[in-house]
């Protein structure tokens, strides 16, 4: 009985040390020895025997990982899951691809993470300023003809193929070269529209054979009646493979931006597209067994209390997977998303690639 009390006390001390110093591997090693010593495991020896028990699933052949995990005491598995989290207070809720709205119109195959068009789900209306996240595939020689937008910030993130953006005031064949009003977009390009008081454009796949795959995202601006405007910018894959690249950040001057600041259209983070919202977008391409960290708020937002939506794009035929914040109940497959709540500006959100192929991840950070 005394030895049990002593061991329990030691475990409490080890847990406390690991909590403050993130020394998970040492904790698991010592805890495993203590369990074996206390409860007399038939497959292990006492802490004084000369045997290497410092084994993690990273060093175990893949065929034996599951067996090793099953042999760990239940308390250790719980402890491991708890200690792997870096944001202990965060609430993370997966949004499975199967729960999205889906329509296949032949020319358009589209998935809706939030209520859109004729698909409505009261659980998925909006998330902070984020209102729409559609993952679309549009076949060649088809697309969205001229249509209006008003009082939304709308942006298209191209994953593959070609998508032509054309303002309604420009006639086909008389565009005068590429500009923010006319642009043939390819992988890595982002086209951004401030709907404001009203604007009309088309988004059409004018390629003769290739399907275009892209995300279309809408955010609510911080006020209505803004001056309509377009922005188009390219973001290299090479940079996205090094870490999360910031795509959008708030307009300098914020909600009270002057006319001069609106005209200058400078974003809080240099090299990004300005958005009229307390909102940041990032994108990264994470190789298997690698981890990227998203700095919540990106040192560019006003509100300290944040929400982050994480989306894993459908680009690898189901071979990509990610784990959010080290949580086994937040492993996402392609097309899945995750609502991350109860986080603050400056928190580090870890995204780990745990699949067989590179994971292209988009993070949408909102007040």
Automatic annotation (TrEMBL):
Transmembrane segments: none annotated. Residues 100-218 form the Pirin N-terminal domain. It comes from the Eukaryota. Residues 48-73 are annotated as: Disordered. Residues 48-72 have a biased composition (Low complexity). Belongs to the pirin family. This is RmlC-like cupin domain-containing protein.
